[in-house]
Every structure is written in structure tokens, then in C-alpha cells.
Amino acid sequence: MMTSLFSIFEPSSSFLSLNLNWLSTFLGFLFIPIFFWVSPSRWVLLWSKIISTLHIEFKTILGPSNFGLSLLFVSLFSFIIFNNALGLLPYIFTSSSHLTMTLTLALPLWLSFISFGWLNHTQHMLAHLVPQGTPGILMPFMVLIETISNIIRPGTLAIRLAANMIAGHLLLTLLGNMGPFIPMKLLTLLIMAQILLLMLESAVAIIQSYVFAILSTLYASEVN
């Protein structure tokens, strides 16, 4: 039972036991041609509205001079939400439920922010370690706390995204495995529960994509 439960997170495929399931990470790129249709659909217009709103929000946080950086975080949001949403479909591997994937996104971003900040704005970064108005006796502790807080940022970003994706998929799998063992009278309730949980997971997929992108944007704004 435990093996079959966690088999949905196994990247290995049945073809020569190769990790081909990671290729599902790039399925989101198949949607790109849709945005170049002569007559865009309502879904494309809705997505364009979401992207433009996020771009304005990220540009407000980063400042008007960081136009390219804002596009980077909009692209990051799009990449994560496509992976999260496609992972809700049957037989599609959810790469964002693995720390390998989420850390690959979070760690390079964090390293680039920290390196840029300490090399170009050293005094600004030092000032961030001691909040304004901190009593002198507490300053060493605040420096330690702020340093630890900065170091664990990529881990918290990665674990938050992966844990939320894993939790929802496990619940859906557990409910699905109960189907053959419950009476017919309760089967309708089980299906309704799965539909509600799937709606919740759809919301979580969107929210976690936004949280990952907005926190990355806030971390980048601290080093400007």
C-alpha cells in the first residue's frame, strides 16, 4: 500500500527504468503557440490579463528600472503554475512535488541575489541584519537570527512548494484507493469529496505558484 501510494512521485518510467517522467516538466511549453493565434480565445485573454497584472505588481516591488527582472519572475510564475496544473491531470508526473525541482529553482535565485547584494551593496546588506530601533544588547542576537533567516530562505521556498503539492496528491490518491472497498451508497460521497479536493488542489496550485514568485521578488527587492 505504501509503495503504491508513493509511486505517483516516482520519476522512473517503464521504459528501461529511465527517469523520463521529468520530461513532463516541459509540457507547459506546448501552450506557447496558442498565444500567437490570430484570434485569441477567452482563456488566452484571461491569461494575458493575469500576466500583465503580475508584471505591474512585480515591477512596483522591484522598481521601474528592473523591467527585465520583473519578466523573469513572471516567467517563473508561469513555469511553476503550468507544472502544478498539469500535475493534477491523470498519468502526468508532477515535477514540482520534488525537492530536486524546487531547489533547482530556489537555490540559484537566492545565490544570485545574495552575491549581487553583498558585492554591490555591502553596507545596505549589513544594515538589513540589524532592524532599526534594536537595543544594543540584542544586536548580536538579531544579527544571528537575521543571518539564519537569510540562509534558510531557499530551503523554505523549496519545501513549501513541494510539501503542498505532495500533500494534495497523497490525499487524492488515498481517496481514490478507497473506492473498491466502500459500499455503493458511500461511493457518491467519495466522488463528491474527490471533486471538492481537486478544486482545492487547483487553488493550491495557483496560490503556491504566486507565493513562490512573490517571495522571490521580495527577496530580490531587498538587495537593490
Automatic annotation (TrEMBL):
InterPro entries: ATP_synth_F0_asu, ATP_synth_F0_asu_AS, ATP_synth_F0_asu_bact/mt, F0_ATP_A_sf
One Pfam family per UniProt: ATP-synt_A
Membrane topology classification: Multi-pass membrane protein
TM regions (residue ranges): 20-46, 67-93, 99-119, 157-175, 187-220
A cellular-component GO term for this protein: mitochondrial inner membrane
Annotated GO MF terms: proton-transporting ATP synthase activity, rotational mechanism
Record localization: Membrane; Mitochondrion inner membrane
Keywords: ATP synthesis, CF(0), Hydrogen ion transport, Ion transport, Membrane, Mitochondrion, Transmembrane, Transmembrane helix, Transport
Similarity comment: family membership: Belongs to the ATPase A chain family.
Protein name: ATP synthase subunit a
Organism: Cherax punctatus
